[in-house]
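Sequence in, structure out. Go.
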Amino acid sequence: MRYIDENMTILEICEKYPESIEFLESKGFKNLNSESVKSILGKLSLKNALLTKKINVETFVEMLNEFINQNRDSADITMKKNNVEDEEITVMGLLPCPIRIPLLEGFTKFLEENPEIKVKYELKAASAGLDWLKDDVIKANHPEKLADIFISAGFDLFFEEKLMGKFKKEHIFKDITGIERYNKDFQNEEISLKDPDGDYSMLGVVPAVFLVNKNMLGDREIPTSWADLLKPEFRKSVSLPISDFDLFNSILININKNYGEEGVANLGRALLENLHPSQMVKSDKMKTNTPTVTIMPYFFTKMIKADGPMVPVWPSDGAAISPIFMLTKKDKAKKIQKLVDYLAGEEVGTVFSHQGLFPTVNPNVDNRIEGKKFMWCGWEYIHNNNIGEILEKTKEIFFRASEEE
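Output:
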C-alpha cells in the first residue's frame, strides 16, 4: 500500500504517519518535532526537500512507503512488553528488509508456542539505519543497561571502542549457539567466520556482487573480480551503495585489507554515482550517468530481467561480505538459551538463505551458492587493527579520490 506521495509536505507526512519521523531523521531530516522546523516543513513538499538534498525522489518515496508498510503490518509484533519487567529477555537490532516480516512472523509463532519465555524486543528494518541503536549502546555505559541479545550487521557498531568494542574487551558477550562448525561455505581452507575468542556469533552475511551493463562496456572486458574493477579503464564507471553503511564499510575494509590504500583510492576513482539497490537494478534505464558496473547486495540480483543488458557477476576473488552478528550476554546464557537456539537454528537460517539470499552460517542449510568465494578480512585483521580508525581513514581516501577529475 502506498501511503506517501512526493507532493505531500513533510509536516503532513509526520502528522499522518508518526512512524515516518524515525525514517526521515535517519536520512538526515533533523529536529522534526521542533516548532520552528515544523513551520518551515509545513510549506515544503517532500519532492522539493529531496531535490535540495540531491536525493533520488522516486527511490526515497518507495523506501519510505516500504518502511511505513512494514511498521504497520508488523506493529503488533515489532515490540512486545510483558507485565513482569525483571523476567523479560530484551532483544534489539536490525533485520534485513527483504526478510524482516517472515522473520518476525516466525519469531512471534515461536513465542506463542513457548509462553514461558517473556520477551521485550525491538527489531527494526535495516533501512531505518543504525543511529538509534548506536545511541542506545553509547548511553549504556554499563553492561547491565545493554539488551540481552543484539542482532545487526555493522563493523563500526560491533568493533569501535566507544560502541560495542569496549564491551567485547570485557568479554560481556559469549557465543552460546552451540554451533561447533559453521556452514561449509564459511568454514573451510579459505575462510573462517567463527569468532576464535568465542565472544560473537553470526547468523549470516550480506554479500556484495557486481551487476554489469553490457551496453556500457564498449571495448572493455566484463570485470570478473575486484582487481579488475580497480583498473584505470573503470574510472568513473561504477555505482556503489554508499548509503548502505554496513555494506559500504565492509567493502572498504575488505578492499583496504586485500588491495591496500591504493586499492581504496582506485575504488574511489571508479565511483560514478551513489545508488540505492532498488535504483541499481533499473540503472540501464538512466538517461545520464549510466553506470557500467553497480555493486549491490546479492539479493537484488533476483530483480534482474533475464533478457536484459544487466549481467550479475559474483567476483572471482570473493563477494565482499557484511556479517550479520548476534551478540548474547554471557551472564544471561541460561535464561536466553532456548531463544538463541531458535534464532541460530535451521528455520531462521533457511529464511535468511532461501528467501533473502543472505547465506547462513547454520551448517544444516544448503546456501545454494555452489562453492562461490567470499571476501572476508578475517578475525586476526580485526583484532590487530583499530576498525574505527581504518574506516575513518579509508573513507577519507575514497572520497578524496572520487573527486579527482
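Check: The longest strand covers residues 201-213. The mean pLDDT is 84.
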